[in-house]
Amino acid sequence: MKLFTTEPFSGLFWNAFAHNLYYFALEMVVQNGIAFILAYILFTKIKGADWFKMAYFLPRSLSVIVVGFLWKLLLNPNYGVVNAALKSIGLESWARPWLGEPGTALTSIILANCWFGIGFAVLIFLAGLQSVSHEVIEASRLDGARGLRLIRSVILPMMQRPLMIITVYTFIHAFEAFELVYAMQGSQGEPYHSTDTLAVFFYRTAFGASTGDGVAIGLGSALAVVLFFIIAALSAMFMALVRRSDMEH
Q1: pLDDT of 8-37, one tens digit each?
Q2: Is 245 helix (H, G, I), strand (E, B) or coil?
Q3: What is the DSSP string of 56-70?
């Protein structure tokens, strides 16, 4: 109960939990949204599709730690490529210390993670698209379904399993977020705990003396159990929805 009722632990726990939810939501919208668009473009058999698939997946072949340090350099406020690019196109007012401001630090880390993971999501969506019956798609086109209407009314309803799989994967990945956060911001959740996630909070609590007077192994163990049950319970719920959908079809 100390984890939920005693400060500063309860405040830090709910702060980290909210960050994990934000991590999941932004990954779903940005990473998986863009990945579906790219997968659909590849599905249309554009020229050079195989080369594009390799290019999208290439970041995934890198170590997470390497990706973290790479993006830390790119986002550096003094000599980073991101700020330099903004200044070169007349958006100097947009340049900022991306990892040094509470309002942008976590979002910057999540977007870096989206760059890292988008290739895997593209492959999942592409496999799902390729499992959709071409006869159904052609029949729908003959009936006048085109563009967004075809995707919304025909393709997405036939891709419920891939969509649920990518949702479960994204949820688990978001609530296990540690390596990239650690590589880019360390274990203190800087600045001002704005990049704390439950995994980072667990690491700092169990091994980093967050109490200021020693390592709280017991509290860290309790946090690990809570994190396990959160991931297990919601993953089980998602998978139950998958089985229910399969039975209905």
Answers
A1: 777 888 999 999 999 999 999 999 999 999
A2: helix
A3: HHGGGGS-HHHHHHH
CA quadruple 61, 62, 65, 71: dihedral positive or negative?
negative
Residue 197 DSSP label: -
* pLDDT at residue 46 in the model: 72
Task: For tokens 């091994």, name the residue.
Answer: 207
Q: Report the first-to-last Cα separation within the chain, whole angstroms.
A: 44
Strands (E), the chain: none
pLDDT reported for residue 36: 92
> φ and ψ at 244, to 5 degrees?
-65, -40
Query: Is pLDDT at 210 greater than 60 in this prediction?
Result: no
**Spatial contact of 129 and 159, defined as CB atoms under 8 Å apart:** yes
pTM over 0.70: yes
Q: Which of 102, 247, 117, 90 is nearest to 180 (CA)?
A: 117
Distance in angstroms (rounded) separating the CA atoms of residues 146 and 151: 8
